[in-house]
Predict the 3D structure of the following.
Amino acid sequence: MAHTSLASRVYDSVLAKLLSGQMPPGQTFNRRQVATELGVSVAPILEAMLELEAEGLIETLPRKGTRVRALSPEDLRGQLIVREALECEAARIYRGAPIERHIKRLNRLATEIDEAALTSPAHAKQEVRFHHYLVSLAEVPALTAAFERIMKIGMLCAIQALHPTPEAAPRSSHVELVNALLTHDADRAEAAVRGHIRKGKEPLMMASAAGSNAQFPTSPSWLDD
């Protein structure tokens, strides 16, 4: 239990630095230095690094060590598509009554986001908290966990300036989204979320990866005999 707690503390510390921009793309990790800074052994450092690597936030390369991943436009496109799928499915579950029960807090959060400057450092976190609140109303832990994971990639994309500039992207109203989600119609709720997420992002979501070569799909390696 203590070891797990230490690994979690290391994970939280490194993740905070990643999502605050303190660690730029390509910066390498000195595991012993991190262990010294946090006052732990190397073992929980390794455990935390494995989790961060599994989430696609860092990478380990032969003879180069472990470093912050430099995300690509294709990473952003994939993040947006998966996020849309998760949020749309969640909306089909939580629309209507759950929104009515939480309407006061949702409207307060939505208003704060809509009134905040897009260039504010806190804006991205505010938006993630708002959408996390919505997804959690579906009361499906696996769905919420998947959303949390994909939004870490989204935050890192924002930190690495892969999102369009505020001037180039139309602004979505979170207050209007909340009102639209009062519907008891699952299709309408899904359409409202899809439109909200896609506003200003269609070119990113629909564009093919630059320079990619189409390959015949293969099955996962863990299905091999």
About this structure: The chain is about 60% helix and 5% strand.
